[in-house]
Amino acid sequence: MDHHSAGEVTAPAVSELDPPNRTLMGPGPSDVHPRVRRAMSTPLVGHLDPSFVELMDEVQELLRYTFRTENEWTIPVSGTGSAAMEAAIGNLVEPGETMLVPTNGYFGGRMAEMARRAGGDVVEVDAPWGEPLDPADVESALAAHDPDVFGFVHAETSTGVLQPDVPALTDAAHDHDALVVADTVTSLGGVELRVDEWDIDVAYAGPQKCLSCPPGASPLTLSDEAMEKVLSREEAPRSWYLDLSLLEGYWGDERAYHHTAPITNVYALREALRLVAEEGIESRWRRHERLAGALKAGVVGMGLEMNAPDDYWLPSLNAVRVPDGVDDGEICQTVLDDYDLEIAGGLGDLAGDIFRIGCMGHAASPANVVLTITALGDALATAGADVDPDAGIGAVREALR
Length: 401
What we know:
about 400 residues, alpha/beta, Aspartate Aminotransferase, domain 2, Aspartate Aminotransferase, domain 1, 2 domains, seven-stranded mixed beta sheet, about 40% helix, transferase
């Protein structure tokens, strides 16, 4: 048979791009500020263009401000938050070294997985899902295992728990000569985080949470001590792409080619960080606390329970207990269908038990809080749950007043 006559390859008919216009109040991504979207539509330049090199310096300065650090090694990693996470762990943990990780949420488990892939031995400090780490337990685990690296999750997106008293953890780790890696994916730009003051060696984050920026260029900062360890490794990290000793050549003084940076994502991150600086980082922390506080008041006001007690409630990610007899997936779907509003269900140990409602960055606004409580109350009441939607809205109004 003549293979030419077997049929021409025809181009697929694909309609024009028209995604729905959602309000994003899930665990991320969050709504993007119009200024950030505009920044992404500006012309591309080369990733070694003098104008882009200047812009790289600005992004680094803005990241230092947002992390509250003076670390020279502060960069956006090309990739999503998990790339920044893998860059942190894959460079810091050498084969045969020990990393202490928490068991109190989904992302502690991801830390463990990445440490194992880096050739590390993983040991655990235990706490139930939905609770923070107890500094005494961390101290005991450090004494028992003598790890080279200790990782903890500052804001656990799977449970809605904020780790309190971070300096107690970092002090204990440093007493045992362990470097500290903090997952700040859902805290950077949304809740109090002070990298230098709290003596955190390495922190990584995602841009799509409290910074309200599309995913693609992810914040990472390393202390001089941490970078010294990275640069003195005997064996190169297993990832060439995320090798910080090579990335240093691009983001450091040389500006030598390593890979093509995601230029548009860097534009977006710069604009998102400019918005942080204009608002003021401490004012931004207060805004998240006030608006998430109103969201929490509405949740409790309608008769629901928060997953995390007030002492370690995470304003940027509100974990709400699913009431008896209700399917969380159906409620999330109803809210999406009827209100174009995204919220999410639980992960891992808490799958089916909680709703995860973000209150992050540009999405943390009075209008969105009112919409979320209205939609959730309506969907739950329709599903026959024992809730009082009107009382929920009343509580939101009172809190916002």
